[in-house]
Amino acid sequence: MKDKIITKATEMFLKIGFKSVTMDDIACEMCISKKTIYKFFSNKEKLVEESTHIIHQKIHEVIDEIVAKNFNAIEENFEIRRLFKEMFQSYDNSPVYQLKRHYPEIYAKLMESEIEDCNEMFGQNIRKGIQEGLYRPEVNIEAYIQFYYTLIFSINENTLLESETLQLEKEALEYHTRALATPKGIEELEKQLLKYNN
């Protein structure tokens, strides 16, 4: 029953938002009593916390699927960016925005676990781009990983509106790619920007 509650709550949080969904809503949707939910979760915050783990896993499953499609390094980054844009297109009512605003401690924990995963992902992408001749071979990979995630996490920490965050993250991706790119990489970047903006 605990897993069923988490699954249903996660589905509702993603659709309606962490703040908007109440324990009553979840109980009503599942045709169970609120007491049953409280048997497994002492409060809504505990349920939100469990749900963020599921969301984190889902996001990474989708990212893994994109990576498995074997796009070139630059296209891969834009495909991942497109995915996030689609997932959170409700903008300022999006689940991430509500999580950041109403459950800052849970949001901070989620961001902490993301840093480790992102480090690995960024590193793989840079190495792939170097092999493909899209990124310069002499770049200091560790430093560029640090630069990029500092940019991305700073945007997430300091931008209030989800719509602004998505726009700034796209700008950060362009900035990051230009800093890494060979002339061949710049050509690919221009192609992806054209595709993304359309």
Characterization of the model:
The protein is mainly α and 198 residues long. Helix content is 80%, strand content 0%. The protein has helices spanning 2-16, 23-30, 34-40, 44-68, 73-87, 95-102, 104-131, 141-158, 162-180, 183-197. α4 (44-68) runs parallel beside α7 (104-131) and α5 (73-87) runs antiparallel to α7. The longest helix is centred in the middle third of the chain and has 28 residues, at 104-131. The mean pLDDT is 87.
Characteristics of this structure?
198 residues, Arc Repressor Mutant, subunit A, Tetracycline Repressor, domain 2, 2 domains
Task: Put the structure in a nutshell.
Helix 5 packs parallel to helix 10 (183-197). With 198 residues, this protein is an all-alpha fold. It has helices at 2-16, 23-30, 34-40, 44-68, 73-87, 95-102, 104-131, 141-158, 162-180, 183-197.
SSE layout and pairings?
Blueprint: H1 2-16, H2 23-30, H3 34-40, H4 44-68, H5 73-87, H6 95-102, H7 104-131, H8 141-158, H9 162-180, H10 183-197
Radius of gyration: 19 Å
Low-pLDDT residue spans: none
CATH fold topology of the largest domain: Tetracycline Repressor, domain 2
Task: Classify the oligomer.
Answer: single chain
Shape: elongated
What is the terminal-to-terminal distance?
Answer: 45 Å
What is the helix tally?
Answer: 10
Number of separate structural domains: 2
Largest sheet: none
Q: What is the typical, i.e. mean, pLDDT?
A: 87
Instruction: Note the run of SSEs as H and E.
Output: HHHHHHHHHH
CATH architecture descriptor text of the largest domain:
Orthogonal Bundle
DSSP summary, beta strand count: 0
**CATH level 1 class label of the largest domain:** Mainly Alpha
The percentage of residues in β strands lies in under 5%
**Could you give me the name of the CATH homologous superfamily of the largest domain?**
Tetracycline Repressor, domain 2
